[in-house]
Amino acid sequence: MRNYRLLRSPSVYALLAAILLLIAGAGCRRGAEEPPAPKTAAEPIRAKPLIIGLIPEQSLFKQMDRYEPLARYLARRTGVEIQLVILSRYGNIISNFQSAKMDGAFFGSFTYALAHVKLGVDVLARPEGLDGASTYHGLIFVRKDSGIGSLEQMQGKRFAFVDKATTAGYLLPLAYFQQHKKNYRTFLREYYFTGTHEDAIYDVLNRKADIGAAKNTVFDRLAQSDKRISEELVVLAKSPEVPENALAVRKGLDSALQSRIQNELLTMDSDPEGAKVLKAFGARRFILTRNSDYRAVYDYARDSNLNLATYDYLND
């Protein structure tokens, strides 16, 4: 499509100039005590793009399909260009914050806890799902025909974790084994990391692994389109509730920009365009989120003897 601009004659420009001078003079006579009229359009407050990272919860294409409309909406409302970057693995979110000079990310609960302790990131908001939930929990699951119904029957089996920097995909099963005084590295025949919750679920479903761990929101979302998941898999254990993936920003990001982004997220459900974007995103609204909301994650890490400041989140 071509870009067009409207051309005007010199006489028109002269008339406009005269009108502007009259308006300016009237403004001077009114005095300086009158506040300026409120602005409705977003004012650009940052020249360079805002770089936001996405953890690999599901496939790259599904992640972009979900988050791109939200990024475009925030860009229009704030006047700041937003670039989304999908990371190859969960743990990358920590190192990439510095190496790629990221400004923020939609963190999972464990990656947020790690980034808050290691990098000082500040959480802003998280989505509330269409069902009203703003939290998730981890699941340990097997095939119904696997013959595995207890911890003892897991011995010598193959386990599909997601990533060492996930609550549902690693912290839950780690605590589960520790509570039963089992070292999964010697108790299991084999274990590996799939990289995404989606892959962990399908690896168990397709018999690549005997046991898997993943977050319930991904499990339930996949089950809506693939009935085999609910028909052929069974859940053996679940974790406490933790906050859904939330947007957090780097330490030192301009406070005015932080406030603007947070305000746009928290009020977008009252805007018709925002409500449409939210529905496509799979949420009713965004809600205010604080570091204290992650108490269950910090407690889980402590009970699992993990020091978040020194924790090695790279997969074995």
Strand and helix layout:
Elements: H1 10-30, E1 50-54, H2 60-78, E2 82-86, H3 92-99, E3 104-107, H4 109-119, E4 122-129, E5 135-136, E6 138-143, E7 158-161, H5 167-179, H6 184-187, E8 190-193, H7 197-205, E9 211-215, H8 216-225, H9 228-232, E10 233-238, E11 242-243, E12 246-249, H10 255-267, H11 272-281, E13 283-288, H12 295-303
Parallel strand pairs: 1-2, 1-3, 7-8, 7-9
Antiparallel strand pairs: 3-12, 4-12, 4-13, 5-11, 6-9, 6-10
Helix pairs in contact: 2-11, 5-12
Question: Could you characterize the architecture of this molecule?
Answer:
This protein has 316 residues and is α/β, with parallel strands linked by helices. The protein has two domains: 50-134 and 243-294, D-Maltodextrin-Binding Protein, domain 2 (3-Layer(aba) Sandwich); 138-239, 3-Layer(aba) Sandwich (D-Maltodextrin-Binding Protein, domain 2). Helix content is 42%, strand content 19%. It is built from twelve helices and 13 strands. The protein has helices at residues 10-30, 60-78, 92-99, 109-119, 167-179, 184-187, 197-205, 216-225, 228-232, 255-267, 272-281, 295-303, and strands at 50-54, 82-86, 104-107, 122-129, 135-136, 138-143, 158-161, 190-193, 211-215, 233-238, 242-243, 246-249, 283-288. Strand 1 (50-54), helix 2 (60-78) and strand 2 (82-86) form a beta-alpha-beta unit. Helix 2 (60-78) runs antiparallel to helix 11 and helix 5 packs across helix 12. It is globular, with a radius of gyration of 25 Å. Mean pLDDT is 85; it is low at 1-44.
